[in-house]
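Notes to self after the Tuesday call (sharing in case useful).
The group wants a holo model before anyone commits to mutagenesis around the pocket. I volunteered. Ligand is zinc ion. Logging inputs and output together so the record is complete.
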Amino acid sequence: MSGRPVLLRGGRVVDGERGTIETTDVRILGDRIVEVGRLSPGRDELVRDVDGLCVAPGWIDTHTHADCAAFLNSENQPLALANLRQGVTTQVCGNCGYGAFPVSEPHRDDLTEHLVPALGPGTRGFPSMQAWARAVSDAPLYTNLAPLVGHGTVRASVMGFEDRAATDSEVTRMEQLLSECLEQGAFGLSTGLIYSPGVFATMEELVRLARVSARHGAPYVSHLRNETDHVQQAVQEAIEIGRQSAAGVHISHHKVAGRANWGSIQKTLGQIDQARAQGLDVTVDVYPYTAGSTALQAFQPPAGTGSSSPRHRPEPTPRDARWPAWPSRRITIPST
Ligand SMILES: [Zn+2]
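Result:
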């Protein structure tokens, strides 16, 4: 604790334990709240009148792709500061299977290109969680980061963007990479099952990896395999992965898209309630808006044949027999 004390006067303080809102003063010293109540300013104290505003500690944003926000250049500083300006002080990154580590040398170029739409203009790949953490600590960053290990990055590091089931030894290698990242401090495993290469993973592969996460006391966090016509099966898959692996399950940005599916969130929430009633640890987060956000690539059926690396992506085949239910039927790109 050091520095000049700060007195916030007349703010609305919400007590989550008592469920009360009280107008009062808060004294902060260093990174600690040291007093709450009717307080008089001390000598040399920095006093801020926050009348009518809520006083809160920093918010945690459970779903970001800020993995490489620390590497933004000066012209992108507004982007680097965006979360902090909204009161967020900790960001969970590495979501939807996209992570800046572990990136293997043979797949570095394809993977980096693949990561850019999610991780933004500062995108860089790192061989390990430790290397990423070192680079982040050396760079200016305005929030704390809690990284998940992106399954897409792990899978592509082992077998590229091959659209096939992984072999036993490939999954074993993925387990090793994931385990190393978790030992080095990563917070869990994330999947992005509508995106290449996550879309090619079988449930068995995911259960094996989720078990590694569970062994480290870390969750399985998933962008589901489907958020439209087949959302209930996708929720069931996530729950089943939790059941078989003993990992806690967190469903990212839970939603149901497509007019025909409006309202079926009642059914998926019912599935989640039921799983929780059976003792499984299943949670969700939601966007704070009603729109969705993703890359245009996600609206193409995943690959045609062979390698689907973004660099060598074949022409999409919209009625590919393997993806009969692919939901995209029309894409409208408005002019700006
Ligand atoms: Zn996502």
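Two things stood out.
Residues 6-55 form a domain with the Urease, subunit C; domain 1 fold (CATH 2.30.40.10).
The CA atoms of residues 154 and 237 lie 20 Å apart.
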